[in-house]
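I had to read the description of the data format several times before I understood it. The format is easy to grasp once an entry is in front of the reader. For illustration, here is how one protein appears when written out as sequence plus structure tokens:
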Amino acid sequence: MADKKKIKVRDAVAVYSALRGINAAKFPTADKAGLFAVIRATRAFKAAFDSQADFERDAAERLKPEDFDALMEKRNRFDTLTPEEKRDVAERLNAYDRAFVECVKPEQEKEVEIDAFEPLSEDVIAGIAAASENMALETLLLIEDACGK
């Protein structure tokens, strides 16, 4: 079993998201131990994912302008607005999005400690690739860096 490791929050979130998206039914059936190693690794990254999701939910709520509901209603009927109203809605929503990104980016760059888990072998990582329909090589590299031996 590996020691606890430090990883950037954004990478921990990406690893958890990728691992939880694996189609377990497509994981090589001969590698039952490998599948359970993936399950344990996924659990190790869950706390970082949940913490970041809570932070982002809170940030999104705190950063909403007072008239956010009215703004969203206007966005939902965007095609019926005048050009000036469209510009105003777009500018205000873009400002909200920028404020959100500026708020969460420092949090994503922080390091978080991940609980110890059994490192994943090359065969297990190959099984992850086989069980994942459209996983990018970049994601497999991230998984290997974060979870491999």
User: Anything to note?
Assistant: The longest strand covers residues 5-8. The mean pLDDT is 92. Residues 111 and 123 are 28 Å apart (CA to CA).
